[in-house]
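Form 12-C: Joint structure prediction
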Amino acid sequence: MSSDSDKIAAEIGKRMDRASKPIPIGVSNRHLHLTKEDFKTLFGQEAEPTVYRQLRQPGFFACNEAVNIETEKGAFKNVRMIGPYRTRTQIEVSMGDAVKLGLKPPVRASGSLDNTPGIKITGPKGTVTVQGGVILSKRHIHFTPADARNFGIEDKQIVRVRCGEKGDRGVVFEQVLCRVSDKFALELHLDVEEANAAMVGNSDFGYIV
Amino acid sequence: MSSDSDKIAAEIGKRMDRASKPIPIGVSNRHLHLTKEDFKTLFGQEAEPTVYRQLRQPGFFACNEAVNIETEKGAFKNVRMIGPYRTRTQIEVSMGDAVKLGLKPPVRASGSLDNTPGIKITGPKGTVTVQGGVILSKRHIHFTPADARNFGIEDKQIVRVRCGEKGDRGVVFEQVLCRVSDKFALELHLDVEEANAAMVGNSDFGYIV
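Section 2 - Result
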């Protein structure tokens, strides 16, 4: 065989192998991350975030603490905080939520908050109006470095992921961002509308195709 | 060339041609179709459905008339009727809606309502509790017979459709049902969560891939 056909065969083999490896799905409902300063304004100077449940990503946890978010057009109550603190407050909503709030947030990777709309946040002890921070989450996969080697993936690579193929609403999500860090655990993050479009939940798996 | 490679080349040519033809997208929010009898119970014996706006499918129209739908777990107000009358009342909700209602409706083609959950419907003049009829809509494409020939598609064929490829959330929807009738107009029907997962709306297009 020529060197070219060897390379093609190797690439196809790599892709077939990758497509057989399940990636656990984590579905995000609307939630927010808070700076320590914003948390203290909302919940009081003596308060600290308390753990409702640990998330699959090491060190991350859903908090018992929840707030209301509000624009001139609409509002949502009991939006849960995800801990720990962040260096910038970030509010992740679905596109359906954004319509009800009258906002047009962009699709962004976590932490990429320039030129995003703001919102009024109310907690039991106070109110914060952030000038930006509302985003639609860019769907993404968390890999450890060992996972990344196993999948043949590099940080920031964009892949296609098949979900729900055993159900009634199979979907291939394109433009899925890969993130690699030794602080991560293997997980595909979708928002609730993306998950519902494929009829998948937290006990299902995606496959890079 | 062999006959086999001729056939393969012809099939690839057909698929490439098909993938270049835009199909207008129609996004459905929650809505319902009513029998004449249920309509009269809800809106009064003298009432008739009135046109809010014509839909792309010939003869179909969103009505001014809206109802409330309700279970023991949840409710939605102002759910719009789509006319004309049907032979069986049918309520189409999103998966997110179904969670709020505490229902687990199956994914079904329109009119396929056996073994589906019921719901309480309230209009200005009365209430109907249907014993079935709540579904998640199976995503589908309406073709005229001329469209079907143009796309090389047959009635009931299942296809894959790419949407949102120019945006930040490209998706390939699998298991899309093709329906062919001289009463139809060319249109891909998605529910609002499917549309949001691909960030597409009523002015966008899908492509069979």
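Section 3 - Comments
Chain A has a mean pLDDT of 96. Residues 29-137 of chain A form one domain.
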